[in-house]
Amino acid sequence: MKIIGVIPARYESSRFPGKPLALINGKPMVWWVYKQAEKVSEIDEIVVATDDERIMKCCEENGMKAMMTSKDHRTGADRVAEVASRTDGDIYLNIQGDEPLIDPEEIRQVIHILDDPEVEYAALRQRITDKEEFTNPNVVKAVIDLKGDALYLTRCAAPYNFESEACTGWHLVGLYSYRRQFLLDFLSWGQSALEISEKGIECNRALEHGRKLRLDETSFSSFGVDLIEQIAQVEEIMKERGITP
């Protein structure tokens, strides 16, 4: 099975334009993600999927394989799907380009969910116990069945507990693995009603079309960079851990 890791990288961002190129200890953010992915021996090839010549040039200058993709994609999964349509992999990974500290073992975990031949689409989940996180619309909550498959993804506090104020939901971790044919189907569907109403939760597109999303619990935690001010936090963590380019 050929496994291709894809790092979607858009230049435009309402809160942090040019985020993939933001320097962290002298290296662009996307470079750090790429290097973490390179530590995963299961991955046969890594591709930065971008829609911007500046990111493409950066990748070329820093020894990273990259591919120009359409500017019309609304989600990272659509961008990964375009890569799948143009390459010959069996399994594809959607590795977030704004997590320079992502643990290689976390990537391995989402790969091996697909060891089950019945699974074609997978991601990770973490338990929510904090009420503020549970009610935060920026945190995507997953409602799952007894097998660990997603029933629904929402920005609301779900599932609601009438019996107590306990927060017992699951937080969706934005790291995905897919089989190639699933991605090609996903791209052909276009955005769905539930995906749009939940402000871009792309997983709901698959659920609306009757496809399953397996969610395994993970103990790994990462640090996603949403604002330029968080660069200093990442550099401090790298300093503490002795991480250098």
SSE topology string: EEEHEHEHEHEHEEEHHHEH
Estimate the strand proportion.
15-25%
The overall strand count is: 11
Share of residues in helices: 25-40%
Reading off the top of the CATH hierarchy, the class is best stated as Alpha Beta
Report the sheet with the most strands, covering strand number, pairing sense and barrel closure.
Answer: 9 strands, mixed
CATH architecture: Alpha-Beta Complex
Shape: globular
Quick one: CATH superfamily? Spore Coat Polysaccharide Biosynthesis Protein SpsA, Chain A
Structural class: alpha/beta
**Terminal CA distance:** 31 Å
Which fold name corresponds to the CATH topology?
A: Spore Coat Polysaccharide Biosynthesis Protein SpsA, Chain A
Overall structural domain count: 1
Mean pLDDT: 94
CA radius of gyration is: 18 Å
Individual helix count: 9
Q: Catalogue the unreliable spans.
A: none
Would you write up a description of this structure?
This protein has 245 residues and is an alpha/beta fold. The protein has a single domain (3-236), classed as Spore Coat Polysaccharide Biosynthesis Protein SpsA, Chain A. Helix content is 31%, strand content 22%. The strands form two sheets. Strands 1, 4, 5, 6, 7, 8, 9, 10 and 11 form a nine-stranded mixed beta sheet that branches. The protein has a two-stranded antiparallel sheet with strand order 2-3. The longest helix has 11 residues, at 76-86. 38% of the residues are buried. The model has no long low-confidence stretch (mean pLDDT 94).
